[in-house]
Each structure stands twice: as C-alpha cells, then as structure tokens.
C-alpha cells in the first residue's frame, strides 16, 4: 500500500520523524481543508511526519456529506492507521475534524488498532440544536490520552457539554478552548494549530491528569 490508497498527503519534517500524526476531515470537507493543512504543517514543524487523508466516502465522490457510510469510513480509518504506522518509527497520534474525529474515536474505542493518542477538533457532541442526541456512548471505552480542540461558539456542543463528554474518558484528557470560534475553528487572534499540537505533545508526555 501507499498513500494513494488512502488519498493521503504527507507533511515531512526536516529531520528523522519523532513519530506520526494521522488526521482526517469533517463531513463537508476533504483532506485539503485549510485547517488540516495548517495542523499538519505544525506537526511537521515540530518534527513529526503528518498525514492528512480522505475518508472512503470522500474518495467515492468529491462533494456532499457522508450517507450511511460510517462502517466503511471506520474501516478507512483503520486502513490509514495501519498504513501510516509503517512510514516512521515512534508514537502514533490519530484524529480528525468533526465527523472524521468522531469516526476515528470510535475506531480507537473499539480497540481495532493500537494508537498512542487521540487529537479531536470540533468534536460533534450532538447535532446543532439537538443537545439531547449525545454522541458520547463510546467515549468511556477510549483508553488513550485525548485532546479536544473546540470553539466556544460551536453549535455542535458548548464547552460545558464538551467537558462532560471528556469526563467520560478514563484516560488523561485536555481541552483547548478557542475563544469565539465556531465549528471551523477559525480565529483571527489565536494560533489554533500551535495550541492543538502543543497540547497533544504536552499531554502525551505528561504522567498526570489534565483537564
């Protein structure tokens, strides 16, 4: 297999990679989302090999949201993790934005493939306007450190709701709050990629509990 099999693009560090970060996109996007590109650039700047890739539903069609494709998309996450593990030595950190992060977290919760950490961007705690429809059932089965990067104005979950969700995870967690940001994590004042990557590295290296 090679990166073409997962429609992946690698961001390579200047020296031998310290590890691998594998990230995917949200429901309306693809591997070329500005957020993913900037995050992968930051991982590479900090010495890691970073790969952004398309989920299977996006490989099948260039536009539109996923439709009844969760099982296939989770299989695509497994495929991407297994492939990227062969690209460099060191820890493997996985995650994604919104839908992609949720599908990745479900793969990790199911223990389908071993990883060292999760990094989730704009985790969709619930559909907009439907706080009763929580998407958190699998979180208690996640056993690796998990970073949530989340906007304080995200309609898919308030910071309070996200903290409640994060508390379900028995492993160490950290929440990176992006003040004023919505679901796309856009910010004119904060360096979102740097904050997210710094938090992931800090949590990965820390033996203590962070919240």
TrEMBL record:
Domain KANL3/Tex30 alpha/beta hydrolase-like: 20-187
Protein name: KANL3/Tex30 alpha/beta hydrolase-like domain-containing protein
């Amino acid at each position: 297999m090679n990166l073409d099999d997962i429609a992946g693009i690698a961001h390579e560090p200047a020296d031998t990679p310290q590890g691998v970060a594998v990230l995917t996109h949200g429901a309306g996007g693809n591997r070329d989302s500005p957020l993913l590109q900037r995050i992968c650039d930051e991982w590479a700047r900090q010495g890691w090999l970073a790969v952004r890739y398309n989920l299977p539903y996006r490989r099948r069609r260039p536009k539109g949201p996923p439709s009844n494709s969760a099982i296939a998309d989770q299989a695509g996450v497994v495929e991407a993790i297994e492939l990227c593990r062969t690209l460099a030595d060191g820890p493997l950190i996985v995650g994604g934005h919104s839908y992609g992060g949720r599908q990745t977290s479900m793969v990790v919760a199911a223990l389908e493939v071993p990883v060292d950490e999760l990094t989730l961007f704009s985790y969709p705690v619930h559909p907009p306007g439907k706080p009763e429809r929580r998407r958190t059932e699998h979180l208690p089965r996640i056993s690796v450190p998990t970073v949530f990067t989340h906007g304080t104005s995200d309609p898919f979950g308030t910071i309070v709701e996200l903290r409640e969700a994060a508390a379900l995870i028995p492993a160490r967690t950290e929440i990176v709050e992006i003040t004023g940001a919505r679901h796309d994590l856009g910010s004119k004042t904060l360096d979102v990629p740097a904050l997210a990557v710094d938090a992931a590295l800090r949590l990965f290296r820390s033996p203590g509990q962070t919240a």
